[in-house]
Amino acid sequence: MNQKRKLIAGNWKMNGSLDANAALLQALREGVGTPACAVAVAVPAPYLAQVQSLADGSPIALAAQDVSQHDSGAFTGEVSAGMLRDFGARYVLVGHSERRQYHGETDAVVAAKAQKALAAGITPIVCVGETLQEREDGQTESVVKRQLAAVIHAVGHCVSELVVAYEPVWAIGTGRTATPEQAQQVHAVLRAQLAAATERADKVPLLYGGSMNAANAAQLLAQPDIDGGLVGGASLKAQDFLQIIAAAQSA
Ligand code: PGA
Fold first, then answer.
1. Could you identify the atom of ligand 1 that is nearest to the CA of residue 234?
2. Which entry of 98, 130, 134, 167 is annotated as an active-site residue?
3. pLDDT tens digits, residue range 110-169?
4. Which one from 96, 105, 130, 187 is the annotated catalytic residue?
5. d(CA 247, CA 251)
6. Does the beta carbon of 210 sit less than 6 angstroms from any atom of ligand 1?
7. What is the C-alpha to C-alpha distance for residues 139 and 161, in angstroms, rounded to an integer?
8. What is the reported pTM?
9. Of 14, 32, 221, 247, which is least packed with CB atoms within 10 Å of its CB?
10. Is residue 55 classed as helix, strand or coil in its secondary structure?
11. Mutate which of 216, 230, 240, 241 to test ligand 1's pocket (most atoms within 8 Å of Cβ)?
12. Which fold has domain 7-250?
């Protein structure tokens, strides 16, 4: 059993509308009560203001899905950490595999984004994870360690302020979840890597993401080094997301 206060973060990806967001937030507010775990939703940038106001006074924290590695200037389409802070973002995802895969984000870019978030007082949720090919080639550990090392190196003494999410790429949106043992194995590797960089590695929440749902959350969250979840598809359905939050509270 893992007694730390857990974090359940929803990743809406490119989903939502003004109407759908209002309905989802209302249902979450009604259902969440005073949770014993931390809860966040990572929303598309145009909806930050809306969700900031919908979540106001609730335990649901606001998160963004990406942040620029630059402070300001001629970077059309980008959103800076300062802008996210203006709208009350508490967390931001950096290095999600969809950003790495479709937008060419390198480890160095991801590390720079994590730095910018921290400098603005926003907690980066650093996503790492191997592809199916990499797992089959026995490279899982070396890939996630390389991805995390770049961020650890860049953020220096702020390592203990990170959140890290292990998201095996082959489990994202596929319905194919890592087994609790597979996930724990990688989480233990990440914990050891953090422990080599900070005395407060135990404080860093290590989330699992990849087809987490109401049925499998409890078992995953019971693992000693799994401190929460980064939930995609299931975070769009209030009842499913609430059930995962409930699982986190009793794990
Ligand atoms: P999923 O997505 O829960 O739909 O697999 C997780 C994520 O990509 O963060």
1. 3
2. 167
3. 999 999 999 999 999 999 999 999 999 999 999 999 999 999 999 999 999 999 999 999
4. 96
5. 6
6. yes
7. 27
8. 0.97
9. 14
10. helix
11. 230
12. TIM Barrel (3.20.20)
